[in-house]
Amino acid sequence: MTTLSHLECSLCKKRHEAGLAHNLCECGGPLLVRYDLEKARQNWSREWLMRAPSTMWRYAPVLPAAKPENIVSLGEGYTPLIRAKRLGASLGAPNLWVKDEGLNPTGSFKARGLSCAVSMCAELGIRKIAIPSAGNAASASAAYAAAAGIECHIFMPQDVPQSNFIECKAFGAQVTLVDGLISDCGRIVGERKQAEGWFEVSTLKEPYRIEGKKTMGYEVAEQFHWNLPDVIFYPTGGGVGIIGMWKAFHEMEALGWIGPRRPKMIAVQVEGCQPVVRAYNEGKQRSEFWQNASTVAAGLRVPKPLGDFLILESVRESGGTAIAVSDDEMLDAGIGLATQEGMFVAPEGAACVAALKKLLDSGFLKPEERMVIYNTGAGLKYLEAYSTKFPRIAPGDGDKLGGLITPR
Q1: How far apart are CA 389 and CA 11, in angstroms?
Q2: Which helix H or strand E contains 82, and what residues bound it?
Q3: How far apart are CA 288 and CA 278, in angstroms?
Q4: pLDDT score recorded for residue 1
Q5: CA angle, 2 as apex, 14 and 243 as ends, to 5°?
Q6: Residue at 182 is within a domain
Q7: How far apart, in whole angstroms, are the C-alpha atoms of residue 119 and residue 125?
Q8: Band of residue 391 on the pLDDT scale cut at 50, 70, 90
Q9: Domain containing 346: what range?
Q10: What are the pLDDT digits (tens) for 27-71?
Q11: Is 10 inside a domain boundary?
Q12: Rounded to whole angstroms, how far apart are CA atoms 358 and 92?
């Protein structure tokens, strides 16, 4: 099964023993999972994938679960990579693709990370978890905890999308709405977890969610027949997707599956909350807390990502960039993608479409480059956000084509 070796601090590089429940390193650094990749290389090959399950667990040798019976899976991963021909033609990017993570269980890429994290909780005997979330991670944690029979405590901003709140309640989670941001929710979890006996599964505060999300990198390589794209656009709130994919690329090179070439990693944020963009533009290694964070894209309203230094490192090493778009640009781009391709995506994914247009216009990207946009969630989970673009016509406003028709 797994070739798990140990855990390593991303800051001080201290080695930590696998098989124990870990949060952060003593120095405050997030822990990263390390594998015996030479062993994996000798006993596992790309050809093995032809017989593997059509989920992210097809990459089990580089995932941490030691016993198959502990894996908690709802069919996550192996999402489609869709050629966006009409949108690409309209933008001047003929080699444009969308990796649609909205088709995961609970409608977002968060299913990958929480499948892995909850599987490890089951393996380590953890029976209570707690998580702060802007929405989709809460839904995924509630679903996988329910499947595992684990108690789940969720803290979300009170203006979280209604779909996320209802999902979490339906899955039987204990839900607390907080008058504040995800950072306030995280503070509450941190203050209460010891007394309540919760294991915290916040972004990067445990080592296994990143392992599930890194499978997005393995999949895009496999779907492109082990020839990575030139550019990857990723909506960046906590940024674990970028960090995970960058880790996956290094692992695959060590396995002999790909060469040293890497895609330009583009971190996409919004104007109302762009701590990573500001840090990138100022040449800093860490971001500063973004005051008064505001955006309709709940997943991008993260005032200060814990793994900001890892995000910035990936972006810079890849020759990529960090860019912010406005809420209006983001929603209009989402509608454009839906109109031209029949894909209704989350605002976070739509932000990448708007960013692509800007980077083509500026000349940063060349039209012939092969580009992949990661849509991290289903648009149906964000009807409140998109409703601002489609106000309903009230009775008495008159009969209008495409509006309200009053039967006679």
Answers
A1: 44
A2: strand 81-83
A3: 8
A4: 78
A5: 55
A6: no
A7: 10
A8: confident
A9: 81-107+210-387
A10: 999 999 999 999 999 999 999 999 999 999 999 999 999 999 999
A11: no
A12: 12
